[in-house]
Amino acid sequence: MEHAELAAWLRLLLTRGIGSITARRLLAAFGQPQAVFLQPREALRCIVSSRQADALLHAPAELPAQLAAVQQWLRSAPQGVQRRIVTLADTLYPTALLNIEDPPPLLYMEGQLDALQQNGWPPRAIAIVGSRSPTPQGALNAQHFARDLWHAAGVCTISGMALGIDGAAHEGALEACGEKQRRAAIATIAVLGSGINICYPRRHAALMERIARCGLLVSEYPLGTPPQPANFPRRNRIISALAHGTLVVEAALRSGSLITARLAAEQGKTVFAVPGSIHSQLSRGAHSLLRQGACLAESAQDILDEMHWAPGSTALAAPPELPPAPPPDTPEDENAALLRALGTDPVSLDALQARTGWPTQQLQVRLLELELAGSAARLPGGLFQRIASA
Length: 390
Description:
Blueprint: H1 3-14, H2 20-30, H3 33-36, H4 41-45, H5 50-56, H6 63-75, E1 82-87, H7 95-98, E2 106-111, H8 113-119, E3 125-129, H9 136-153, E4 156-159, H10 165-177, E5 188-191, H11 205-214, E6 216-219, H12 231-242, E7 245-248, H13 256-266, E8 270-273, H14 284-291, E9 295-296, H15 300-307, H16 333-342, E10 347-348, H17 349-356, H18 360-372, E11 376-379, E12 383-386
Parallel strand pairs: 3-4, 3-7, 4-5, 5-6, 7-8, 8-9
Antiparallel strand pairs: 1-2, 2-6, 10-12, 11-12
């Protein structure tokens, strides 16, 4: 993109009072952004309000700094990673976004753009979303769904890089993609609720770098935009639009994941939900979706069947199963008995004592052994849960 064209796009979107809908109205009336700023006030007033027209006649004070920052960002891409500004007029702009009510006029993209240019947007993509504070089993489920969908049929995982389910889903896709397939296809796409040069949450810095090297980072927000709360519900429309379906793994009734699911349904996309324990608050959102007609998903195969996607040459990994109890009369008998007592739902220490009849010290020792072995997890509120393995 030439300097003048880039400056015009940034000016349009930085102008106070000009949102994405108003920007598209101006572009529909006058063509490219450069043409918008050549119009007299009277012509602008036919499209926008007096206050908006006055704002368009003066370049925003932050434009020079933002333009310089964008140019520096474009020039400083790490080796093996490409960066690009994609506008509504760009051939790389995703067609799926043009079909929603409020498509972003401009997108910042970072990652494997060569694969995107060669192969286009992933023909098979599923959004995997859920709680930022999932149970260990929920996080493992999200990881396994993303991994299995890629292994089985090259299905790209789309999510928001948030803590919890989002991060686990990206991790599963990256694990499945591996080093050999790097840059050959887009394994995962992260849609950010901040400027693309802002890592949020900070603990996902390494994950963000890996996504750029095996997938794609996308943001509609100007560089430097902080992760404000209002940004995340808004970015969800992009997540649902880019995907062909949305899978909710764990979510409370008041969850941003249900916003994504609602947007997906409004966009005519298939919504999937993973059922959970009737005693868990994090199952309420998924169960509500199931009552409303969402498709139940117990494995990646359920999604492939519903979407009529034929598996590739790689067979599906088996769904997570609970570890089998060891044979009788072995030193592990007590741990096996405790695994059976744990069941599949979160349970309190008092309940475990009632089920096993063991003293507190013995129970604590066995629980610690199961935690260290990865067979059980300690949850908030003094609860424990059995963990399924891959």
